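# step 3/5: fold
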Amino acid sequence: MKCKLRKWKMEDAPSLAEALNNKKILDNLRDGLPFPYTQEDARAFIEIMLEADGHTTYAFAITINDKAVGSIGVFRKDNIHSQTAEMGYYISEEYWGKGIGTDAVKQMCEYIFNNTDIIRIFAEPFAYNEASCRILEKAGFKYEGTLRKNAVKNGRILDMKMYSIIN
């Protein structure tokens, strides 16, 4: 299934809130998102993304038929890493296993490499998140290694995997 990336719109708040009211998704993201996730939370996120520095934050809705079904972002690092960026993404559970994640990651990399001076994009999924690791591999990312005991999520100490793609 093909998706399209586009800038966020305030009208995306209901579908964003619906997607993030899912513990299976939240358990694979970094901390800081409230649960339950309300439309007010979604509107605040969208506003922040729309006002973000366009040189450091590249954030898009992943859409199917113009409905937001996920989120993808690339966030530029600074100092000696200013041409390196971290990618994060998620897809609504009803769209899992349909190739949307891989398609979105490929589109985002193409956009970043064609429109910025970023030369390296990396992602750090939890090691147990095999689906996310597979998305990255299918999108051309290379596995660089395991970051042992790199995070604490839901009271558990977890390994993360490092993947990157180079322009």
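# step 4/5: annotate
The helical segments are 13-20, 23-26, 39-51, 100-115, 130-138.
# step 5/5: archive (pending)
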